[in-house]
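Example record

One chain of 458 residues, shown exactly as stored in the release files.
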Amino acid sequence: PCPPQNVQTTAVGARSVTVRWSPPLHANGVLSRYKVFIQTGRSESPSGSGTKVEGSLNSPPRTNATLSKLSPVTPYRVWVAAVNVEDGELISQLAGPVTFTTIVEASSPPGNVSFSNITSNSVAIMWSPPSIIYGSLAEYNVSLMPSLGGPVTHSVIVSANNLSTAIENLVPFTHYIVEVRAGTFRDVNHSRPLLWSNPDTNKQPVVFATKQTFPSSPVNVTITRLSSRSVWIWWDGPEHPNGNIQSYSVVLFEKRKVNGSFNTHEHKYTWALTRANRTKNGGTQVEVNALSPYTQYNVTVYAVNIMDGFELVGEKSRLIEFRTKDGTPGFPTDCRVDKESVTSLVIAWSPPASGDYKIVYYKIAFQSKMYYYQSVKKTPGIFEQKNLSAATPYNVTVTAFTNDTVLLSGPACRMTARTKGQVPGSPTDCRVGKEDVTSLVVGWSPPAPGDYKVVHYK
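Predicted structure tokens for this chain:
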């Protein structure tokens, strides 16, 4: 047969090419097949048996063939021959050669990926060049993603001349997967977009963990229960624990009045993080005891991580202010009758023994067999009860009260007092001086002298 016509290449890839042609001008027999020959370099003639494109009795052979297993970025020559079969192969002259060059393919992935200089928020990544580079290497892309899943969080472009980079602004105490890819230009004209290498699926991913650092402050610090001597404090863990929280510290600042001015005293309590102080909804709750009643406190909480034997003390939460409830006051001291008269009694007392409570008032009560008198005074000292009965014994009590949503009274200070004077005797020389139809005139003389003063006669 005559040689095939219009030989050309299409769909040139990195490792394959499609060759097309037209049938011979004169078959000069029954065309049974075509042979496609390919050769690298600049050979004037092919070698080998070529690729056969078979036909059949009812169908001529097709006029195209796809050749594979080529090498990227490699020049090739291709020829096509027509074949008749008549007592053996009758091969036409070769049509061609047609020259083409396979395109660039992504290089192999960089090797020996490693890391060093790990801190809580940075790392240095190193690698070696790809073992196979097709075309011209443009740059590297280093990316990090959390090992627990999720998108890429950090991506850095590094020039082809460098084999390391530092990545910062990482999350402390986090495991990252490292991926380094090589980017190759598409052609000799350095066209983009680049062809990026694929990860080696036969190797385990490179994983590292950033170190621990100082945790952020606990959040939602709340006072849940309060008494005169204790407080329950609840909080949620830090938004950024930055490590394994080992313990929490609660710091109370107590305000005390000393010599007329307030001083602040600091008390610190530390709890290891255990199931005992964890609540059902994931928070932490602790009880602080041995507080002073009716005392102002500020409280703050902070978390502690431990790394290499050193405590990493976290940020303190915002201050929460509270006041313990009032305690029950003691009894007033130095209670005494300061002055007695015929119709009044003056009572004196001092405050209860020192205690951390606030007295809102004192109740002073005077009780005789016939009468009961009660008064309220806000400050200790002296109180006079007037309009009492002369020469009458009274039971006197002084009681201190505090007020914390309900009144709290302490034990009473008790004493006995008596107004001055005696019961007067009977008037003397009582007589009827004059009588008429509508009136009587009565006369009398004073009682016998005694320790009293007659106020009036009845």
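Notes: The radius of gyration is 54 Å.
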